[in-house]
Amino acid sequence: MCVIFDMDGVIFDSENACLKCWKITADKYNLDNIEEVFYKCIGTNNAQTDEIIESAYSEKLGNGISKKFREENSFLFHELYDNGNLPIKPGVVELLDYLKSREMPVGIASSTRKTTVIKELTDAGLIKYFDKIVGGDSVKISKPNPEIYLLACKEMDVQPSLAYAIEDSYNGIRAAYSAGMHPIMVPDIIAPNDEMKKLSEAIFDDLLEVKKYFMEKY
Question: Quick check: pTM over 0.85?
């Protein structure tokens, strides 16, 4: 058995942090419906995000706006949240400490680039908990395709049927389910719908509840 975490929105409160940056940049360019566009981008890689932003705003601001928009957001995000300033979600340390005490292998499968994942976990003092890290730049197709979870299970030398995936996004749950894992949803800024309730083995309000769940099972 092993546990594989998504990172953004699960370990870090990064979705809300990103949304704050998006709103600031959107105000600069007078862009409408930024929250709706942002929600579509949750759980995607950079290429998919570019497609969504271009579809929404290229007619108004011209082709290539996505690259400029993301670069400005990235600069603002790092300015605000680097060096350990990115908020950690409730229950992260408690759950990771419990898994470590039970000697359960722990990994990351994030759509974010591996170098960024490592830096953010290191800045937060959490890198010591993770045995394997797979970033979005390690796969050709991002979530909801199961490729990243299948790769993470392979690197952790575990069958997907023996692995839990902890996710906050629809695409993450879809990917974990398609990989044959045990998806656990801890919603962040998007509430679970009927599809998520069907695909998830369990849905919890926070990681402290996930810890309790594992304590009862293992």
Answer: yes
